[in-house]
Amino acid sequence: MSCELLEKLQQAVADVEAQLKVDASKDNIEKLRIAFLGRNGLFPALSKEMGGVPKELKKDVGIAFNSSRKAIEEALENAKNAFAVKEEAANALDVTLNGREWEIGHKHPISIMIDECVNTFRRMGFIVAEGPEVEDVYHNFDALNTPKDHPSRDEGDTFYFADGRLLRTQTSPVQIRVMESQEPPIRIVAPGRCFRRDTPDATHGMNFHQIEGLYIDKNVSLADLKSVLQQFAHEVFGEKVSIRLRPHFFPFTEPSVEYDFSCIMCGGKGCNVCKNSGYIEIAGAGMVDPNVLRNVGLDPEIWSGFAFGLGIERLAMLRYRIGDIRYLYENDVRFLEQF
Ligand SMILES: [Zn+2]
Fold first, then answer.
1. Helix (H) or strand (E) holding 336
2. How far apart are alpha carbons 224 and 187 in whole angstroms?
3. Could you give the dihedral angle defined by the CA atoms of residues 88, 91, 96 and 102, in that order, rounded to the nearest 10 degrees?
4. Is the entire prediction scored with pTM above 0.70?
5. 172 alpha carbon – ligand 1 mean position (Å)
6. First-to-final CA distance of the chain
7. Is 286 left (phi over 0), alpha (psi -120 to 50) or beta?
8. Cα Rg for the chain, rounded, in angstroms?
9. DSSP string spanning 77-119?
10. What DSSP string describes 218-279?
11. Taking the CB of residue 72, how many other CB atoms lie within 10 A of it?
């Protein structure tokens, strides 16, 4: 009886050593540990057989049991250490391993469009200006000659904070801040994020990007504005694109225009994108209103200037033929990978 148990213990040690010789991988070491030393393994089972050992042999068998278990523990521990050393050496030195592939990301289409606009205007002598996204009512509305009862001031259209400040609804307050702090001549473009309480649909989002331009100097005319916009259209959408100005009204410019590009899709012949008109509405512009100049301490008899705005999302959608503005904000990599 006792001899049988002793044989089993010796056999267990021999088995572990033999199996480690065949496979000393991390997985196999763990498998052996569970099979021999684990809660439902061989050793707990054998310890139950100790009860049947005659009294006079108990001490010797007990010693044999403990030393066998220790021998197996040590064999597994040594194998584990040897494997770790081998693995480290392989990782450090094996130049035949395949290289690790890096997934390099790229710019978002909105960022691509902003960079392209900024670079185009830079070549025409404009520099980039920035301002806060959290604005005060003065810079966002009052200084821009927005009437007190203008609907854009409404809480239904603008996000207000409890202290009366707001999330800017346009990048125009940057123009005011620049005119307040710098002497003309001024030639800036202000790219940035704006916020309006729109219900998101295919062409509207609650946050969007604009880039606005401002040029203040002596004897600036509408012809200068038109040539800058024409040049921009050529550089960003190609030599064949022409522009068209239509009379409009904005509180901060006088006269004000809306400007269109000849249709980028059909070249002006008429298609469903331009609704057969041959033109695509781009944004608003105009000569800076004398009231706005007075608000920043400039004499409208001496200084004149123009301002224009562009919607970045709109440009990106035209450029990349994206049908729904929401794709730009869903961060679906399958969509973004295309640009
Ligand atoms: Zn068209």
1. helix 333-336
2. 12
3. 170
4. no
5. 30
6. 78
7. left
8. 38
9. HHHHHHHHHHHHHHHHH-TTSPPPPP------HHHHHHHHHHH
10. TT--HHHHHHHHHHHHHHHH-TT--EEEEEEEETTEEEEEEEEEEPTTTTTS--TTTTTSSE
11. 23
pLDDT-flagged residues of the chain (< 70) = 1-2
Token look-up 């307040």 returns: 180
- Which residue blocks in 94-191 are alpha helix, DSSP H? 109-123, 137-140, 172-181
For residues 219 and 301, give the distance between their C-alpha atoms in angstroms, rounded to a whole number: 10
Delimit the domains of the chain by residue range.
Answer: 2-93, 109-336
Calculate how far, in angstroms, residue 241's C-alpha sits from the geometric centre of ligand 1.
Answer: 12
Q: Which residue has the tokens 């395949």?
A: 98
**What are residue 167's DSSP bridge partners?**
134
Do 216 and 320 contact (CB within 8 A), yes or no? no
Report pLDDT digits (tens) over 152-163. 888 878 899 999
Distance of CA 279 from the midpoint of ligand 1 (Å): 7
Q: Which of 291, 290, 230 is nearest to 261 (CA)?
A: 230
pLDDT tens string 240-295: 899 999 999 988 899 999 999 999 888 888 888 788 999 988 889 999 999 999 98
Can you read off the two tokens belonging to residue 274?
């331009």
Question: What's the CATH architecture for 109-336?
Answer: 2-Layer Sandwich (3.30)
Q: Two tokens at 234?
A: 């050529």
How remote is the CA of residue 33 from the centroid of ligand 1, in Å?
73
Distance from the CA of 280 to the center of ligand 1, in angstroms?
8
Distance of CA 202 from the midpoint of ligand 1 (Å): 19
**Tokens 């572990």 sit on residue:** 16
- What's the CA gap between 168 and 37, in Å, rounded? 68
CB 172 within 8 A of CB 155: no
Ligand 1: distance of its center to the CA of 277 in Å?
7
Q: Closest by alpha carbon to 169, among 139, 126, 130?
A: 139
Per the listing, tokens 């041959």 go with 278
The rounded Cα 1 to chain-centroid distance in angstroms is 73
Question: For residue 219, what is the DSSP state?
Answer: T
pLDDT at 88: 83
Give SS3 for 16.
Answer: helix
| The pLDDT value given to residue 60 | 87
